[in-house]
Amino acid sequence: EKTDDDIPMPPYFRFMALLAFKIFSAEQVDVALLEVGLGGKFDATNVVKTPVVCGISSLGFDHMEILGNTLGEIAGEKAGIFKKGVPAYTAPQPEEAMIALRQRASELGISLQVADPLKPHQLKDQHLGLQGEHQYVNAGLAVALASTWLEKQGYVDRMPLNCTDPLPDQFIRGLSSASLQGRAQIVRDSQVNSEEKGQDSSLVFYLDGAHSPESMEICARWFSLATKDDRKVPSSMEQSLTCSKSRKILLFNCMSVRDPMRLLPHLVNTATQNGVHFDLALFVPNQSQYNKLGSKASAPAEPEQIDLSWQLSLQAVWEKLLHDDDKGSNSANSGENSQVFESLPLAIEWLRKNALEDPSTSYQVLVTGSLHLIGDVLRLIRK
């Protein structure tokens, strides 16, 4: 309300960090976990001078236009959160990244410890709430950070005894109940799937906000495993009788700052290696729009106002990937392999129409490429 030309609104990430600090202070939280918005060294969250502990999760090639073109450069920016006298942990990293992280830790005179991935037996027959094998790496880092905080607070009796023994019950409850929308999330479409109609799960959305080469591979492995599991273990006898075959469809968009030639090949190749081939790819614009805070701009109302040139570029990359595929497992005719929709609601409507008209087929739709797209899909299918 008090902003003007002399005191403008802060950039989005800085505003969100400031808002978070205000809320934490107002609510008098006991402990806060701050996730860096972008990079590390120059991120708004890095104003905290003496955190209890610092952690770095798995690094990959993302935001390269800002952070650098090599993993070493990116790791150097990430290591900017390290503080003198503050313990630091990292998930296992490629050697190039580890060299940069160790160098910064050495400059500050702190020890950098690698957090071991969690072992399944440490959960005492429970399962992680977040799906995907990579979550055991994230869980290992989370346990290391939480244990450090407990130690600093004097709660030594609540800490894990070592990195191989089963975790305390409080840790297991937290890890098994954790949830994060849009990451390895499976949603059965309620408008199509109805037990009253004798149908079950003939349209299922598999949502993952992957938007880097590394996360694309992880996403493809998860989707491959999840759809195989769905085929092996029908949720009801009706499903095994009703859905005798499946169609795997990709619903994709990514921001224009991303390079689809660095994303789609990783997705397709990893899926193929795991025995999964997409029958069709749908390319759509995001429904939500990114505007500056305080902007009066609105989303285009008429279809003819929507620029689909980016979606057509994505489709061209997809078609080239299929054309270059020596296995020839996909049709070579453009239009059979992919479609561009002028809006996300139209794509969802098309999927529902086809699923209802063909109840003998299970439509397994992987939605990925953008967290904005994931959020838009979740809003639409839950209406």
UniProtKB/TrEMBL annotation:
Keywords: ATP-binding, Ligase, Magnesium, Metal-binding, Nucleotide-binding, One-carbon metabolism. Pathway: Cofactor biosynthesis; tetrahydrofolylpolyglutamate biosynthesis. It catalyses: (6S)-5,6,7,8-tetrahydrofolyl-(gamma-L-Glu)(n) + L-glutamate + ATP = (6S)-5,6,7,8-tetrahydrofolyl-(gamma-L-Glu)(n+1) + ADP + phosphate + H(+). Its cofactor is a monovalent cation. One of its GO terms (molecular function) is ATP binding. It is an enzyme of class 6 (ligase). Its EC number is 6.3.2.17. The keyword Hydrolase does not apply. GO terms for biological process: one-carbon metabolic process. The keyword Metal-binding applies. Belongs to the folylpolyglutamate synthase family. PANTHER family: FOLYLPOLYGLUTAMATE SYNTHASE, FOLYLPOLYGLUTAMATE SYNTHASE-RELATED. This is Folylpolyglutamate synthase. It comes from Hordeum vulgare subsp. vulgare (Domesticated barley).
